[in-house]
Amino acid sequence: MVNIEELNQKITAESALLTNIREEIKKVIVGQEDMVEKLLIALISGGHVLLEGVPGLAKTLTIKSLASIIGGQFKRIQFTPDLLPADIIGTLIYNQKSTEFFTKKGPIFANIVLADEINRSPAKVQSALLEAMQEKQVTIGDESYPLPSPFFVLATQNPIEQEGTYPLPEAQIDRFMLKVKVSYPTKKEERDILDMHEKSTTGLNSVFSLEDIHRLQNITKEVYIDEKLKNYIIEIISATRNPELYGLSKLKALLVYGASPRATIYLMQAAKAYALLQQRGYVIPDDIKYMAKDILRHRIILSYEAEAEQITVEQIIDDIIGQIEVP
C-alpha cells in the first residue's frame, strides 16, 4: 500500500526546489509560464521536449537560463542545412604522429543539449539524435559511448517558415515526450519585457543540481496512480487509433495514424510529474487531461481531408477527451 500522506509530505518538502527554479527564471523571462512548467515536467520525468513557436518568444533564452540554473553541462547546436551527423555525435580522427585513430566527441555529450531550429537540417542529421534520445548513448565507429546522466534534448522549431526546412522523421518526433506550442505574450507581459530591458540584467544563480534532478525523478516515479486512471489513459490512446469504437465515427476519416504505445507511457509519466508540481502524491483525471495535448499533438497524423477542412489535431484531442468516460 502507498502511504499517500507520507508521500505528500516528501513532495511538499522537495517542491521548494522547483519553486526556486521558477523564481530564478523570472529574472530573465517574462511570462511563458506554461513553457517553463512543461520544461520542468520533462526534467523530472526524464523526457525530451520540442518547442514550436515563431522567432522571438524566448524559447532559446528559456532553455539556456534553465541550463545555467541547473549547473550541468550545456551545449547548443545550431542546426543548418550543411550540418553533418559527425558535427553532433563526434567522429574518429586519425593522428599522424601515433598512426592511430582517436575519438573526438561531439556536443551531444552534455546534460542539456539545445537543438536550435532542428528542422533546418535534413533527415540524416536529425536522425543522428535518435540513438542518443532513446538509448542515452551514441555509436562512433565500432564503439558505443554512454551519455552523461541526466540527459535532455530540448529542441526548437519555427512553424511558419517552410523554405529551407525539413520535417522531422516520424520515428524521431515520437522520441520527444512533449511538443509544446509557445504563444505570444499578453500586452501586460510585453510591457514588462520593455521595462526589463531598460534595467541591467541580473545574473542567474545555480539553485538546482544534477543530484536534485535524479532525486526528483525517483520521487516522480513514486507518485501514485490508480488502476482506473491507467485504464483511462489506455482508452484515450486507443481512441486515437480506433475512434469509431468510442462513438467518434466522424473522426475515422480525419485520422491516418493514432498515437504509439510510447504515448501511453509518456502520458502516465507526465501526469505524475504534473501532480508532483501541484504538490500531490497522487494523480487525478485532470492531470491526464492537462497533459494530453502536449503528449499527443505530434503523434497523431491527420488525413488530407482534415487538413482541407482546417481541422487541427488539438480539436481532435478535445473531441476524444470529451467522449471518453472519466473514472
Summary of the model, kept short:
The protein is an alpha/beta fold.
Characterise the protein shown here.
This protein is of the alpha/beta class and 327 residues long. The protein folds into 2 domains: 165 residues, P-loop containing nucleotide triphosphate hydrolases (Rossmann fold), CATH 3.40.50.300; 101 residues, Orthogonal Bundle (Helicase, Ruva Protein, domain 3). Strands 2-5-8-1-9 form a 5-stranded parallel sheet. A hairpin with a 4-residue loop joins strand 3 and strand 4. Helix 1 runs antiparallel to helix 9. The radius of gyration is 21 Å and the shape is globular.
Provide keyphrases for this structure.
alpha/beta, globular, single chain, 2 domains, Rossmann fold, 327 residues, five-stranded parallel β-sheet, two-stranded antiparallel ribbon, Helicase, Ruva Protein, domain 3
